[in-house]
Specification:
It comes from Pseudobdellovibrio exovorus JSS. Keywords: Cell membrane, Membrane, Transmembrane, Transmembrane helix. This is YjgP/YjgQ permease. By secondary structure, the protein is α+β, with helices and mostly antiparallel strands. It folds into 2 domains: 250 residues, no CATH class; 78 residues, no CATH class. Helices cover 60% and strands 16% of the residues. It contains 9 helices and 6 strands, in the order αααααββββββαααα. The protein has a 6-stranded antiparallel β-sheet, with no helix packed on it. β1 and β2 form a beta hairpin. α1 runs parallel beside α5 and α5 crosses α7. It is elongated, with a radius of gyration of 28 Å. It starts with a helix and ends with a helix.
Length: 366
Amino acid sequence: MFKNRRVFAYILSEIVPSFLLGVFIFICVLLMFQALRLTEFLLIHGIKWTTMVRIMGYMSISFLPLLLPMSLLFAVLLTYNRFSQDSEIIAFKSSGVNPWSIAMPAIAFSLFVTLVSSQTSFYLAPWGNRQFEVLINRLGNTKAAASIKEGTFSEGFFDLVVYSNKVNSQTGVLNDLFIYDEKNPNAPLTIVAAEGQIIPDTTHPGHSVLLRLFNGQIHRKGESHTVINFNTYDVLLNDPIRLEEKKKSPSSLNLEELLTLRKSNEDITPEMRKDYDIEYHKRSALSAACFVFGILGLAFGIVTNRRSGKSSGFILSVGFIILYWVVYLSFESLVRSNQIPTGIGLWLPNILFTLFGLYHLKKVWD
């Protein structure tokens, strides 16, 4: 590497722009799969464009652990495939550049991306995912009427079952309401009302939602059946005094939180501990996949009999990405069904693809 610094810098200058291009392309592709969800936020919830940008930003950050290995494979394959197509690999060898010096830029950059990916997987991506969860939760409370569908029973609406014949998601007005509340299983409530309106707290958006009902009845079933008629009745859906922060999902936990929960013996069921173990090894394996994909890109990029280096490099990268995820998800399903240990199952795809890449790389150099 030090004897051929110009070669190293030249190859690296080709890999880095392709890598950044790959990150941009794969972010756009993944956001396209979320287009329907984003459209719902924009049209039904009526959120501002600045909030939409924040949502897309948090989603992109949470996608990074998946994007970095794919982008690295795309960059290395595209770069070395073009070198092979333009006979630059042959020119390097003819000039006395040994194979190790040719491969070193890809290996060094793969190690660097692996380090960045590990920090991203355990800190940046969980932060982005958590910010996304909190923002969506607040939007759901602020635009609560948008989660109620006309003519259907909406379950999970602040732990209530709600039915409304007509819903205006912009004004929050509901007509012909039926509400079933079983928060107290010994005395469940059934509320019917001619009209209702969802009134969010504009001073603290997302922290308090008031449902004001007009002209209805409250039926309480306990030891005796009680009926209460009302002209106006307020239901506080989210009390800011009692509001507790929503518990973090496994994908929103950073490294220290994951390690603590994996070792904790308090209020952790075997299923939850299994989820934490899978999340820890999954992030570690995805970070290491950057180096694995770098080896694969190097092994299959150095060829001399392709018509189009760019097109074949892109096709190969997509093919390897699909194949890797098929293998990975297959092993993950075996892990979740307790057929193989967590650590072994989630790391086996990396081991298999590394051996495959090294074997093919040896054949190319020979």
